[in-house]
Amino acid sequence: MKHDFGHKLRKWLWAIIFIPIALGLLFILGVGIFARIPSFEELEDPKSNTATELISEDGVILCTYHIENRTFVSYDELAPNLVDAVIATEDVRFREHCGIDFRSLVRVGVKTLMMNDASSGGGSTISQQLAKTLFPRDTSNTGGMIRKVRFVGTKFKEWIIAVKLERNYTKNEILAMYLNTIAFGSNAFGIRAASETFFSKEPSELKPEESAVLVGMINKPTKYNPVLNYDRALKKRNFVLGQMERNGVISEEALDSLSLLPIELDYQVQSHNAGSAPYFRDMLRRVMSAREPEKSKYYYKEDYLADLESWREDPLYGWLNKNFKPDGSKYNLDKDGLKIYVTINSKMQKYAEEAVVEQLSKNLQPVFFNEIKYNPDRPFAKDTPPELISSLMQNARRWSDRYRALKEEGLSDKEIEKDFNTRTKMRVFSWKGKGYIDTLMTPNDSIKYYKSFLRAAFIAMEPSTGNVKAYVGGPNYRYFKYDNASQGKRQVGSTIKPFLYTLAMQEGYTPCDPVVCAPVTFIVGDTTWTPKSTDKAEWIGKTFTFKWGLTKSSNNVSAYLMKQFGPQAMVDMCRKMGIHSFLDPVPPLCCGAADISVLEMVNAYNTFPSRGMRTRPLFVTRIEDKEGNVLGTFAPRNSESISEATAYLMVNLMQGVVNEGTATRLRFKYNIQGELAGKTGTTNDHSDGWFIGYTPHLTAGGWVGAEDRQVHFESLTLGGGSNTALPIWGIFMQKVMQDPTLGISADDRFIAPAGIQLNLKCDGTDSDAVTQSEDTYFE
């Protein structure tokens, strides 16, 4: 007993007298002893990975580039109840101490060391915890004594950093930094990512009970994760609420009522697969990371020249390789916390994504699955040659990650073939339920399964500025990462015809000029070519108008114009309007024999409502560093492509397509009113469906098709652009026009150039075949 009493007395003397004296001396000598104490500059800019934010034109964070999903918030962006919860739980005397809470240290020394009471908690202040997070401890595995000595040294170092923090920052700034550096699990780093992940809210919008959940996760994010361990999280939340009541920041009545509430989550993990505009994010990374083009790396000269022009004239193209930090190093999108202000409108982006999903999941995919149900070669069309199917499947296997992994393991081709025909468990995409299915199938069957899904792309752009307002590159970014909006190029069909008509209008024709509907034959080398006529038999030989020709998408009228001007003149006109893809100057070009991206086509059509001005697509208006310093600004790049009069004539021509032609369902099905113009397009075998249209203040266009052109609907009724792509435009524009905040109205009007005289009597219907007795002019 006497021995135990003497031992305890010595421990008390150490705790009360000698330890404080020793700590004080060590603290005074600390700065001199520890040479690697962070400088003020390091405290200002710790080596933490900060996500780059893409901020929409209406101020919404669309998505991020990140290694750690972390974006900083200021103290003013924190809900007061969140601040109260943190202080009450983590450091109740935070507003009073200078970075070190000596009362807590004594408590830890007496209760934990002397009385072996671990429930007394730790003694680290918020400032010390911040110091530990910003400059982590050395966790290398060493001997026991060395580890203890190193721990003591590290602890003193944290105290010194904490005091430095207190001297150079306000309490509010320290608290904000602290919350910005915490890892909350679920790929959420920092309070903003955590509040968005668990509650889909900004930190300023958190309710007291929600703040308490997040604060409860601070030190043990997995143990108290409400998704993984609901009961523990609920108990911990109520503990935090109890601390808040104990410290007088909520009332006893509030504690009682809040403690009874369940934890209600809106859980959305902020991964690279999540967020709005993921295809736009990837496209922007490609643009900003581009290097000066090398001709030898391009198959088509036209693509090389287009990229070379972008490198020389577009400051955003290759921005990361043209602009450098003050120290000469390159900016890193994943780590440097840039703020990129983009032209995307968050509402339009949402409406575009919803339109694509609705059309594919509800209207097209179920019908397509039903059509191919009894096809033994599904998803490939019935007339697809077996050797072509074999080639497509072989290429798909070789492009797969699975094939590359098996090759790296040294498996032979025969062994790989066996693997691809062996059933295995896998999770695959589905439009139903959770968005996926856990199933058992062979890798070969999974390739065919994914090939059976229709893809889509859609872009909306503002006339005059070229601001890209919405950008959708595919049906679902998690499972279909290929960007069909700008990376993919598909045959455009009849959507190319307006460029040929533009050439005619520029050369003096008008929409109501007469033209005979009759087959036209071209001599091509040693043979002849006559485009397949889509016109009714009773139309052949009759005289109509050019407006009728475009309204009916007559191949005969297009061939007539091609005969008048020639393929090279059409190619030149396409170039003027912004088409840079390879175009073969041959007669079939008049019917759409060209592979072009959705981005190019929408940009070219944007010339018409822009009154003849070619407006290059604009993706970004401003880039800032994480301190708010402006690193670059970007403005529209416009040049005159066609005359204002020619543009207006084309608007008049293309209005006939919407009012009387292949796009009339925009009126009778989607009830879109006001002045509209556009053009549908369908390619051979219905492999590609297109529609591009515009109002006076918005141009938009979309494409629908499968990965392979041999996967398609069997009929024009189902596979035509008016049934596949046009509905996406209709659904999107319905939502846009119903949203008064977007400023797109049925009252908008196309404005005729001053002094122009037009014959407006024709409307594109069959009545245009009737001889006009008198011209009607509009001034």
What does this entry look like structurally?
There is one protein chain. The protein has 779 residues and is an alpha+beta fold. 42% of the residues lie in helices and 12% in strands. The strands form eight sheets. It has a five-stranded mixed sheet, with no helix packed on it. The protein has a five-stranded antiparallel sheet with strand order 7-6-20-19-18, sandwiched between helices. A two-stranded antiparallel ribbon has the order 4-5.
Characteristics of this structure?
single chain, 779 residues, alpha+beta, 5-stranded mixed β-sheet, 5-stranded antiparallel β-sheet, 29 helices, elongated
Nutshell version of this structure?
The protein has 779 residues and is of the alpha+beta class. The strands form 8 sheets. A 5-stranded mixed beta sheet has the order 2-1-3-15-16, with no helix packed on it.
Radius of gyration: 33 Å
- Assess the beta-strand content as a share of residues: 5-15%
Number of strands: 22
Helix content: 40-55%
Counting H and I runs of at least 4 residues, what is the number of helices?
29
Lateral arrangement of strands in the main beta sheet: 2-1-3-15-16
Helix/strand/pairing category: alpha+beta
Average pLDDT, all residues: 86
Oligomer: single chain
Q: Which regions have little confidence, pLDDT < 50, spanning 5+ residues?
A: 30-36, 116-121, 771-779
Largest sheet: 5 strands, mixed
Write down the overall geometry.
elongated
* Distance N to C terminus: 114 Å
Task: Please describe the topology of this protein.
Elements: H1 2-33, H2 40-44, E1 52-55, E2 61-65, H3 80-90, H4 102-114, H5 126-134, H6 144-168, H7 171-181, H8 191-199, H9 208-216, H10 230-246, H11 252-259, H12 278-289, H13 301-313, H14 319-322, E3 339-342, H15 346-372, H16 386-398, H17 401-408, H18 413-420, E4 424-429, E5 436-441, H19 443-451, E6 455-461, E7 468-472, E8 490-491, H20 497-506, E9 514-516, E10 522-524, E11 527-529, E12 543-545, H21 546-551, H22 555-565, H23 567-576, E13 595-596, H24 598-605, E14 613-615, E15 620-624, E16 630-633, E17 638-640, H25 644-660, H26 665-668, E18 677-682, E19 688-695, E20 698-705, H27 716-719, H28 721-724, H29 726-737, E21 758-759, E22 777-778
Parallel strand pairs: 1-3
Antiparallel strand pairs: 1-2, 3-15, 4-5, 6-7, 6-20, 8-13, 9-12, 10-11, 14-17, 15-16, 18-19, 19-20, 21-22
